[in-house]
Design brief:
Strand order of the largest sheet: 4-7-8-12-11-10-9
Number of strands: 16
CATH topology of the largest domain: BirA Bifunctional Protein, domain 2
CATH class of the largest domain: Alpha Beta
Order of helices and strands: HHEEEHHEEHEHEEHHHEEEHEHHEHEEHE
Helix content: 25-40%
Protein name: Phenylalanine--tRNA ligase, mitochondrial
Domain Aminoacyl-transfer RNA synthetases class-II family profile: 196-371
Subcellular location: Mitochondrion matrix
Subunit structure: Monomer.
CATH superfamily of the largest domain: Bira Bifunctional Protein, Domain 2
Family: Belongs to the class-II aminoacyl-tRNA synthetase family.
Radius of gyration: 25 Å
Oligomer: single chain
């Protein structure tokens, strides 16, 4: 299937054609709509690319990418395109935003609170922080980093083209901050935090965005770190000496004693972290789960406003990962959490798009130097939504992916798209074709979006879907 990466390039032309062909065409509407799309801080942060592939400025004015028909250039490196390439310009524009490094962004406030906690919870003998923090690593990683190093099977669904943003068959935008674990352990680090933007092709609604932010923690322990008491350390061991089968409670190479000590340390740390963020009265519970890179594994949930909310995943790291990283003589634990999920609850932020807003009414609410300041988000205004349905016949003899359609909608509509929901499908026996119907909800976070303006964007999406996804509008 052809990539939809080129969709934004022809949006202006599409809009002009849509207006000229419409029965109720008014020249002033075309002028207003064009100005709206150019000036809105939520749509098309970049201008169209020239024939020489010069990138447009993003909202911060610092460009780190360019796109040509044959290659994607990101952070000064060129990645030749192939059949796996599916990163569009809109996604590339997010790679330089680095919201977690912007001092007054709520994600930065949350990050600072977590880092403060880890520093205080794990002081070194010299009273300097035990954990190293990496928060500006390139989001471009190899397939080996993102999947193979973490023991993710070759046939795992998370590797699918419909789930990730691939630069080509060998490189992608990281799907999780865990992609950096092995390289940092190989450098000799035993304790570190990684904070960064991650990218996944996901559904579109108020709580999902193709770019979000994670914080990852890894702690490796030797014998005397696990068993602090010298007398106990002489009697107990981290690793089994004979052949022992893997069980639900532990890996085959770890002793029961070591896993019990590591589990207690991990879970005690995370309960304290949750109390640090949500208050000591919050209810918590552990849920056993499965991850390819940890065993045993858990998710921690908190009861927030009467509902159980998953806040993080964690576990005892697979020993083969440590061995491959040159740290086979240690045992480790790790956890990872999503910053947006925490910030949306703590600050009562109703829509994930608000983290990306440059509207002063939003930004000024978080312009405080103290990350512990008790802030409750106040809506700038309740602007009405515009809802448009789109129905089309799927291409014959071709695999259609909803993820490609969602990407196309996002690349054209930008942050004006609040939600895309799959409404219906049916099979026409005579035509021998499937039909899909989707509902797109448009809403501007800073001003009223008229139905006429929404219709212009919707028409551009229809035309791009026909051109790039080879569907037929019904």
């Amino acid at each position: 299937m052809a990539s939809c990466a080129c969709a934004p390039l022809s949006v202006t032309g599409m809009i002009q054609r849509s207006l000229l062909m419409s029965k109720g065409f008014r020249p002033q509407l075309m002028i207003n709509a064009s100005k709206y799309l150019q000036l809105s801080p939520h749509v098309f942060h970049h201008r169209n690319y020239s024939q020489s592939a010069q990138p447009a400025e993003n909202v911060n004015g610092d460009v780190n990418y360019a796109d040509t028909p044959s290659a994607t250039i990101l952070d000064g490196k060129s990645y030749p395109k192939d059949e796996w390439s599916n990163v569009n310009q809109k996604i590339l524009s997010y790679t330089s935003r680095k919201l977690h490094l912007q001092k007054y962004n709520p994600l930065c406030h949350i990050k600072r609170r977590i880092v403060d906690f880890m520093y205080k919870e794990f002081p070194s003998r010299t009273r300097s922080p035990l954990f190293s923090v990496f928060e500006d690593l390139s989001p471009t990683v190899s397939i080996e980093q993102n999947f193979d190093s973490l023991l993710i099977p070759k046939d795992h669904p998370s590797r699918k083209k419909s789930d990730c943003y691939y630069l080509n068959k060998n490189h992608l935008l990281r799907a999780h901050t865990s992609a950096h674990q092995v390289e940092l352990m190989r450098s000799g680090l035993n304790n570190f935090l990684v904070v960064g933007d991650v990218y996944r092709r996901d559904e579109i609604d108020k709580s999902h965005f193709p770019t979000f932010h994670q914080l990852e923690a890894v702690r490796l322990c030797g014998l005397h770190d696990v068993f602090r008491d010298e007398n106990i350390a002489r009697e107990l061991k981290i690793f089994e000496t004979g052949k022992v089968a893997r069980s639900p409670e532990k890996q085959e190479s770890h002793t029961v004693d070591a896993v019990m000590m590591m589990t207690n340390a991990l879970q005690t740390t995370l309960i304290k972290l949750v109390h640090h963020l949500f208050g000591k009265d919050v209810e918590t519970r552990w849920v056993e789960t499965f991850f390819p890179f940890t065993h045993p594994s858990w998710e921690l949930e908190v009861k927030y406003n009467g509902e159980w909310l998953e806040v993080l995943g964690c576990g005892i790291m697979e020993q083969s990962i440590l061995q491959n990283a040159g740290a086979g003589d240690k045992i480790g634990w790790a956890f990872g959490l999503g910053l947006e999920r925490l910030a949306m609850k703590l600050y009562q932020i109703p829509d994930i798009r608000l983290f990306w807003s440059v509207d002063t009414g939003v930004v000024h609410q978080f312009k405080v130097d103290d990350p512990y300041a008790p802030i409750i988000y106040k809506p700038v205004s309740q602007y009405p939504p515009c809802k448009n349905d789109i129905s089309f016949w799927l291409p014959e003899n071709s695999t259609f992916s909803s993820a490609d359609f969602y990407d196309l909608v996002r690349s054209i509509g930008g942050e004006l798209v609040e939600q895309v929901s799959f409404v219906d499908e049916f099979y026409h026996k005579k035509k021998q074709r499937w039909s899909h119907c989707y509902r797109i909800v448009y809403r501007d976070m800073s001003k009223t979006l008229t139905q006429e303006e929404a219709n212009i964007i919707h028409s551009a999406i229809e035309q791009a879907a026909v051109k790039n996804l080879r569907v037929d509008i019904r």
